[in-house]
């Protein structure tokens, strides 16, 4: 586009910075909470402006899949955009998130800190080199857990970027599904047209 | 009358399958005319400014945008 780029068009740098820093100092993972709360707050305020303006991860996929051509640019399978899959993935994601919070709680209560990053909810990789101490064990545990979530979702996003369209992640992104749900619930509550058209069902 | 009919240009425009739209706004970003927007975080909506260039359809990660001849509805429910 010929349109002049705005400051928020470069938020992919933040995303890249975040992913890189996790390899050096895991405590940077806490910054990821920004990507969790900002879209939610924006959706409560009204709208999904976060997705197309502020989402650094989406921009990163756009860049890699679009400009760098690392995408087949094929249609995503029908089942992946179905509500069942999107809501199911959101539920799964929230469950795994709760497990992560529970582990943080256990460490807070005195359990041993596990310096590992779990990829795809299965593979536990040693990650001790990214933590030199200095923080409360539960603070570090949360960082390891949160970074696991972020890295896992980035990997999934990269895989679907290559297989389908660059921003295929956006179709089943739990934050996207959640913010759309918030908007739908708001619409229902206000008795808008979304209510009459069965959105949110 | 017939001449007028044959000279009439068929216009293309984007049509959104609203039920499957994930409201990510990727289409908004690529539209050169600002003719598509996300309605209250629910789904994408096409305005009359659309000239049917098809960039949004190519970009849409969920592939829910198709190009239709003018006269048909801009939204599929």
Could you walk me through the main structural features you see in this protein, from its secondary elements to its overall organization?
- The complex is a heterodimer of chains A (201) and B (77).
- Chain A is built from 9 helices and 2 strands, in the order αααααββαααα.
- With 201 residues, chain A is mainly α.
- Chain A has one domain.
- Chain A has a two-stranded antiparallel sheet.
- In chain A, helix 4 (56-67) packs parallel to helix 6 (137-163), helix 5 (83-108) runs antiparallel to helix 6 (137-163) and helix 5 crosses helix 8.
- Chain A starts with 11 loop residues before the first helix and ends in a 5-residue tail after the last helix.
- The model of chain A is unreliable at 195-201 (pLDDT under 50).
- A 3-stranded mixed beta sheet of chain B has the order 4-1-5. A two-stranded antiparallel sheet of chain B has the order 2-3.
- Chain B is globular and about 35 Å long.
- Chain A binds chain B through residues 1, 43, 46-49, 51-53, 58, 62, 73, 75-76, 81, 86, 164-171, 173, 176-177, 179-180, 182-184, 186-187, 192, 194, 197, 199, and chain B through 18, 20, 22-26, 28-30, 32, 38, 40-42, 58-64, 77.
Brief account:
Chain A is mainly alpha-helical and 201 residues long. Helices cover 59% and strands 4% of the residues of chain A.
């Amino acid at each position: 586009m010929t349109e002049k780029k705005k400051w928020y068009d470069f938020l992919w740098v933040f995303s890249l910075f975040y992913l890189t820093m996790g390899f050096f100092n895991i405590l940077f993972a806490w910054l990821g909470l920004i990507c969790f709360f900002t879209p939610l707050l924006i959706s409560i305020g009204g709208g999904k402006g976060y997705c197309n303006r502020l989402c650094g991860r989406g921009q990163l996929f756009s860049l890699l899949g679009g400009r760098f051509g690392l995408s087949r640019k094929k249609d995503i399978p029908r089942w992946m955009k179905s509500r069942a899959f999107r809501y199911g993935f959101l539920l799964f994601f929230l469950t795994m998130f709760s497990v992560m919070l529970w582990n943080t709680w256990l460490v807070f209560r005195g359990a041993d800190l596990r310096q590992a990053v779990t990829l795809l909810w299965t593979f536990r990789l040693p990650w001790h080199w990214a933590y030199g101490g200095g923080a409360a064990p539960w603070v570090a545990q949360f960082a390891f857990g949160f970074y696991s979530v972020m890295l896992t979702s980035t990997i999934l996003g990269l895989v679907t970027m290559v297989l389908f369209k660059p921003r295929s992640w956006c179709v089943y992104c739990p934050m996207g599904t959640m913010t759309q749900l918030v908007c739908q619930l708001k619409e229902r509550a206000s008795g808008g047209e979304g209510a009459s058209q069965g959105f949110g069902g | 009358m017939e001449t007028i009919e044959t000279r009439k240009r068929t216009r293309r425009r984007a049509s959104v399958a609203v039920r499957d739209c994930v409201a990510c706004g990727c289409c908004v970003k690529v539209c050169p005319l600002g003719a598509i927007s996300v309605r209250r975080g629910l789904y994408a909506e096409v305005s009359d400014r659309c000239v049917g260039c098809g960039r949004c359809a190519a970009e849409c990660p969920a592939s829910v945008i198709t190009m239709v001849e003018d006269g048909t509805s801009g939204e599929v429910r």
